[in-house]
């Protein structure tokens, strides 16, 4: 197909046009998808900020049915109870400041209650020799903690499922937090959400928590890249297919 305007001719091949439209649609779709992800992160951050500004909830006064509710997600909480120190769960492959380490999870029983929550106590550097157990904090007796309720952490794709690995009498290393698996391991009934210690709380390790929704600018950057690819593709397509019309004819 040929289109003429002035002394120029637009004559793209059909296969070239189809490929261009395919990739153009793909790049635009990916750009819009990244903008949607940025909007989700923005809403998540706004919800996080709103819930963090509310007064802290005393977990010892919360009904058990409400504890697993999404309405409490990201709420600041206080809790009085005791760590069940005979079970220390190390979530493997956690990088902080370019160093490999673990997030340390310990079951926590609320005082005068059968309610048990899994607490993320923070990050601990791993020894280069994976057979060596890290030195852990042991908190005896009844303690008070400050924390925030969050969902069970999502882990990326694993090459294969690995059962908990016992590296000492009380320490288990896992590749992901699966509450049903840990409940079977510890013989404890764990609540469906976990809590993580706030930086100002005692009885923990390093805590440089990322705020949920903090990746909005990254998604906006990706969206700009995809739209830039779409624009560049369209410009290249036009430049390659717009040609000067060749004049033909004979002298009189």
Describe the structure.
With 252 residues, this protein is α+β, with helices and mostly antiparallel strands. 31% of the residues lie in helices and 29% in strands. The protein has helices at 14-53, 64-67, 179-186, 216-241; strands at residues 3-5, 8-10, 57-58, 76-83, 88-96, 99-110, 116-125, 143-150, 165-166, 171-174, 190-197, 242-244. A 5-stranded mixed barrel has the order 4-6-7-11-8. It has a 3-stranded antiparallel sheet with strand order 1-2-12. The mean pLDDT is 85.
Distance between the termini: 32 Å
Radius of gyration: 28 Å
User: Strand portion, in percent?
Assistant: 25-35%
C-alpha geometry: elongated
Outline of the structure:
With 252 residues, the protein is α+β, with helices and mostly antiparallel strands. The chain has helices at 14-53, 64-67, 179-186, 216-241; strands at 3-5, 8-10, 57-58, 76-83, 88-96, 99-110, 116-125, 143-150, 165-166, 171-174, 190-197, 242-244.
Q: Keywords for this structure?
A:
alpha+beta, 5-stranded mixed beta barrel, 3-stranded antiparallel sheet
Secondary-structure blueprint:
Layout: E1 3-5, E2 8-10, H1 14-53, E3 57-58, H2 64-67, E4 76-83, E5 88-96, E6 99-110, E7 116-125, E8 143-150, E9 165-166, E10 171-174, H3 179-186, E11 190-197, H4 216-241, E12 242-244
Parallel strand pairs: 3-4, 5-10, 7-11
Antiparallel strand pairs: 1-2, 2-12, 4-6, 4-8, 5-6, 6-7, 8-11, 9-10
Helix pairs in contact: 1-4
């Amino acid at each position: 197909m040929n289109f003429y305007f002035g002394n120029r001719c637009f004559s793209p091949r059909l296969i070239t046009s189809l490929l261009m439209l395919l990739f153009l649609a793909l790049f635009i779709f990916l750009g819009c998808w990244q903008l949607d992800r940025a909007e989700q992160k923005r809403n998540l951050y706004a919800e996080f900020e709103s819930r963090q500004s509310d007064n802290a909830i005393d977990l010892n006064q919360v009904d058990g049915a409400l504890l697993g509710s999404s309405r409490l997600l990201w709420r600041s909480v206080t809790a009085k109870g005791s760590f069940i120190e005979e079970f220390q769960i190390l979530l493997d492959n956690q990088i902080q400041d370019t160093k490999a380490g673990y997030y340390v999870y310990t079951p926590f029983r609320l005082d005068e209650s059968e309610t048990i929550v899994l607490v993320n106590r923070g990050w601990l550097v791993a020894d280069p020799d994976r057979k060596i157990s890290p030195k852990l904090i042991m908190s005896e007796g009844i303690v008070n903690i400050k924390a925030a309720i969050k969902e069970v952490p999502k882990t990326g794709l694993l090459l294969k499922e690995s059962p908990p690995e016992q590296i000492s009498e009380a320490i288990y290393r896992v590749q992901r937090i699966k509450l049903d698996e840990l409940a079977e391991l510890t013989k404890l009934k764990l609540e469906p959400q976990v809590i993580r210690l706030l930086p100002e709380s005692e009885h923990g390790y390093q805590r440089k928590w990322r705020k949920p929704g903090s990746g909005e600018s990254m998604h906006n950057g990706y969206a700009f890249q995809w739209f830039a690819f779409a624009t560049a593709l369209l410009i290249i397509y036009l430049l390659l297919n717009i040609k000067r019309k060749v004049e033909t004819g004979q002298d009189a």
